[in-house]
Amino acid sequence: MAIMRPSTCLTPFFVACTAWLAVWPLAAQDDYQPGPDAQPKEGVPKGTVTQAKWTTSRIFPGTERDYWVYVPAGHDSSKPACVMVFFDGGGFVNEKGAFRVPTVFDNLIQAGEIPPTIGIFVNPGVVPPAKAGQEGRKNRSFEYDTLSDQNPRFLIEELLPEVAKTHRLSDNPDCRAVCGNSSGGIAAFTVAWERPDVFRKVVSHIGSFTNIRGGHVYPALIRKTEPKPLRVFLQEGENDLDNLHGNWPLANRQMEAALKFAKYDHKVVFGTGGHSGKHGGAIFPDTLRWLWRDWKTLKP
Amino acid sequence: MTMKTLSFAYFLSAAFLATASRAQDMPLSQILIDGEGWEVVSEGHGFTDGLCPDAEGNLYFSDVKSGTAIYKVDLAGKVTEFIKDAAGISGLKWGADGRLYACVARGRMVVAFDKDGKMTELAREVQPNDLAVTHDGNVYFTMTGTKEIRRIDPKGVMTVVNAGTVGKPNGITLSPDQGTLAVSDYGGKYVWAFRIEADGTLAHPEGYMTMRIPAADPEVAKGDGMTVDTHGRWYVTTAVGLQMFDPTGRMGGVILKPQEANLVSCCFAGPNLEYLHVACGDKIYRRKTKTRGVLTFQPPRPAEAMPK
Q1: What is the DSSP letter of B15?
Q2: Residues ≥6 apart with Cβ < 8 Å to B239
Q3: Which secondary-structure segment (H or E) carries B255?
């Protein structure tokens, strides 16, 4: 781990001092807070958030996961709407988290800065244990870090059709965005990279474009592939991880350089944080404004 | 610095760390000890295989090619013939019933030896490669040639519990809680994870771990013998070395082979089960580690969290 654990900081006293010195600057540099757009505003109607469970995946057999669907206030579900998918969705939908997406959506949709958007917040799968006392199989890394079409197909063939039974979703790939943090960040990129016919907007925070399961090759692939019609936002922190899988700041710089080389529509914001969602959350309203800046020209 | 300041720093650190990465990184430095390399435990064999420990940490192994016995290495390092007249064995595991289970590749049998060395046939006309034995007495074994995983239940009934998922099923091991069975592919690049159902059948196979492959043969990792440690990390012998995976299936590193020969079996044995042992060609090697092995004949328990 690049980061000391709190219990290590306490004993003995000498170690505590050393750990304190190591951790203190990081804490100060990662002091990002949700801004006013992440607070409920008077007069702005609140959308609805509905929680559900997906237990019948064919693409990830045996997995179970929670997901949440956000629908803007007053939305007519018979009309096609833009859609934005969030991996590790439970964190993004949390009204006390770093992102508070439902509130941000309420405010920005009301202000006309982003389109009326259905938010889908999906957690990674777990193969639950067969017997009490067992741990089950955590499927997050397999689903998010693997470079393949499996996770894109999970969205396109399983989750989106289920949501579309209740809320009509736009077929326009420019009206479909996907977002995630860390392994969820590279997973978001993989969705659009594999299926630009379906998703073309990507937001990655502290994205794991490192060798967890081979994701470090994306900059090379981007440079030597005819550019795909994607819009990519990357947030990264100078004090992000440097571990056995790779160096996160360098990996995101490589992504930035490759996207620039191949002339992608992209934006990269570097902060001073570590491996947390705090910076990405603090700037998220502006990220959405950039991502959807021409939404009024799109036909959902 | 006063204690008051320290507590405040601790509070801030904890608040910061609460949002830090959720998946724990498990580099090889958590396992290997600087200056502790491979040392020869036994030599002069043909093709060593079938490593397994007992509760005291004694090591058992076979020599598939030229061996005539099941060999034992005691805690003092002395090598003896533990069971004589046992040739062509490719897999060994102790069961909770005190019997030593064995895949007799040459004799096309799965057998069990009791404490007096008396052999009982559990299955015949089979082509077993390697096996895992659960605490509740289920024997799972791989049939590499027919792409099968078979089970012999505690009543002795044999069934095919998977066929066709793994191209060349070879190594086989259990998670510390015995809820997950892992099977390596000698002819591909994945280690497959299965859920062991309450009735002992297998469900939900997934190519959970992607092995590193040799540059010369980019589709074939030669996944072979497997083991786990108390933290739920998986180990698999392959063409490029002993590959370690964290409990969520992320490759953590490749431990280099002790010599340029076939690396086919691994387990933790020796004092406190802290010594990683491998079968590599004509020799058995070991090295001290910072971690410990799991005895599958003992009651299952959850993987231990890494010390903080």
Answers
A1: H
A2: B213, B214, B217, B220, B221, B222, B263
A3: strand B251-255
Most distant CA atoms of chain A, gap in Å: 64
pTM of the model: 0.90
Q: Which of A4, A61, A213 is closest, CB to CB, to B210?
A: A213
Domain count, chain A: 1
**Is there a domain that residue A53 lies in?**
yes
Pairing of strands B59-63, B69-73: antiparallel
Residues of B in contact with A20 (CB under 8 A): 1, 6, 9-10, 13
Instruction: Tell me if A32 is assigned to some domain.
Output: no
Per DSSP, what are the bridge partners of residue B152? B139, B158
Whether ipTM exceeds 0.90: no
Degrees, nearest 5: CA angle A141-A146-A152:
100
DSSP secondary structure string, A6-20? HHHHHSSHHHHHHHH
Confirm if B236 and B222 have CB atoms less than 8 A apart. Answer: no
DSSP secondary structure letter of residue B98 = S
Q: What is the H or E stretch that residue A233 is in?
A: strand A231-237
Mind listing the pLDDT tens digit for each residue in A257-281? 999 999 999 999 999 999 999 999 9
* pLDDT for the residue B240: 97
DSSP A152-167: HHIIIIIIHHHHHTTS
In whole angstroms, how far apart are CA A238 and each of A46, A247, B303? 36, 10, 33
Q: Dig out the tokens for A76 from the structure.
A: 């007519």
Residue B6 burial (10 A CB sphere; 0-12, 13-18, 19+): middle
- The answer to whether the beta carbons of residues A16 and A9 sit under 8 Å apart is yes
Mark out the alpha helices in B49-177 (DSSP H runs). none
Report domain extents, chain B. 25-288
Separation in Å, CA of A7 to nearest CA in chain B: 7
Diameter over CA atoms, chain B = 74
In a domain, A2, yes or no: no
Nearest by CB to A275, which of B13, B20, B28? B20
Domain for residue A39, yes or no? no
Interchain contact, A142 vs B247, CB within 8 Å: no
Tokens representing residue A277 in the block:
């969602």
**Out of A157-166, B7-16, B124-133, B254-263, which region has the weakest mean confidence (pLDDT)?**
B7-16
Q: According to CATH, what is the number of the domain B25-288? A: 2.120.10.30
User: CA B136 → CA A118, B180, B299, distances in Å?
Assistant: 49, 14, 8
| Domain CATH number, residue A230 | 3.40.50.1820
Find, in chain A, the residue whose alpha carbon is nearest to that of B199.
A130
**Partner A contacted by B26 (CB < 8 A):** yes
Read off the pLDDT of residues B230-278 as tens digits, 9 standing for 90 and up: 999 999 999 999 999 999 999 999 999 999 999 999 999 999 999 999 9
The secondary structure of residue B146, as a DSSP letter, is G
- Cβ-defined contact of A1 to B24 (cutoff 8 Å): yes
Tokens 């290590």, located at residue: A8
User: CB neighbours of B300 closer than 8 A, spacing ≥ 6?
Assistant: A133, A134, B134, B135, B174, B176, B177, B178, B179
Report how far residue A207's alpha carbon sits from residue A234's, in angstroms, rounded to the nearest whole number.
7
